[in-house]
Amino acid sequence: MYYRFCWGCHGFRGDGNGENGPYLNILPRNFVAATFKCRSTPTGTLPTDEDLFDSVGRGFTNSNMPAWISLTKQQRADMVAFIKTFSPRWKTDKSGDPINVPAEPAVTLDSIKHGKELFTKLECWKCHGQEGRGDGPSASTLTDSNDQPIRPYNFAAGSRFKCGTTNHDLYKIFMTGLDGTPMPSFADVIKPEDAWDLVHYLRTLQVTHKSPELALWMTTKEGAEIVKAQKIVGTPTGADIEQ
Ligand code: HEC
Ligand code: HEC
């Protein structure tokens, strides 16, 4: 099955050098190197089988990795077992232990505001931009482990992440990092209780996605003004601008 569906991108030997590779903005994953973006496990460690299974079914937004929902669960699980045979790492290393994600506290304005402070203090804005549009001062200088330019995520563009869609997924993204990219793990600098505040704030940057966080933020004068300004930048046709 790999040689039917995957090798055109990921390569005959799983090294990411499939014939379609050169045409893609982000190169297909090199399974020999076995460095993976979407993990429930700490940075630098191998993902769990479940992480890989979820990635194959989800597909990667903002890249050419399709969602393989047309394959059965068994087929996806078989595919995960197969891609692990490409790298000797799976013989010497075990999957990392999934990080502990505490229960999500209620969404409050204090939580959102504290998350906003963390976004500034931890310098997420240097890459992602003050408004989370992926246009911070460092954005144009970033490259991934294949020496390809890579854009920081633009929160204003949608609701999906490469590594999931839920608040739980969002928590894991910055606490484990996207290995092989400049997006680091913040597990050593963010306390678990603070991490949820950051999650709540990041949702308010997704101005085109309805969420409880955005709705609450919009009830404040500060939040409503910021979101309004962000929406104007995001509508080049001017359709949303009040005149
Ligand atoms: C059209 C090209 C294409 C095809 C076909 C394709 N992939 Fe991918 N795949 C990619 C690209 C590009 C990436 C890297 C995406 C990124 O980093 O944003 C990727 C990434 C991955 C990852 C990495 C997940 C992670 O967390 O880093 C896995 C696993 C994967 N593909 C499995 C598969 C399997 C299994 C198949 C066949 C069923 C397949 N891919 C078919 C292009 C493709
Ligand atoms: C050195 C630059 C840099 C810094 C600092 C940075 N990021 Fe990122 N971030 C990136 C890049 C690059 C990507 C895109 C990776 C990709 O597409 O594979 C990204 C992606 C993301 C994503 C989307 C991941 C996905 O699954 O699609 C989230 C969420 C995110 N960053 C949150 C944060 C938060 C929160 C902070 C601060 C605590 C932060 N980032 C700091 C560079 C950075």
Structure, explained:
By secondary structure, the protein is mainly α. It folds into 2 domains: 2-92; 109-233, Orthogonal Bundle (Cytochrome Bc1 Complex, Chain D, domain 2). Helices cover 39% and strands 0% of the residues. It has 11 helices and no strands. The protein has helices at 2-5, 7-10, 49-58, 73-83, 89-92, 109-121, 125-128, 167-176, 192-205, 212-218, 221-233. It binds heme C (2 copies). One heme C (HEC) binds next to helix 2, helix 3 and helix 4.
Task: Provide keyphrases for this structure.
mainly alpha, 11 helices, single chain, 243 residues, 39% helix, Cytochrome Bc1 Complex, Chain D, domain 2, 2 domains, binds heme C
List the helices and strands and how they pair.
Blueprint (H helix, E strand, L loop, with lengths): L1 H4 L1 H4 L38 H10 L14 H11 L5 H4 L16 H13 L3 H4 L38 H10 L15 H14 L6 H7 L2 H13 L10
Helix pairs in contact: 3-4, 6-9, 8-9, 9-10
The structure holds heme C (HEC) (2 copies).
The site of one heme C has 25 residues, from α7, α8 and α9.
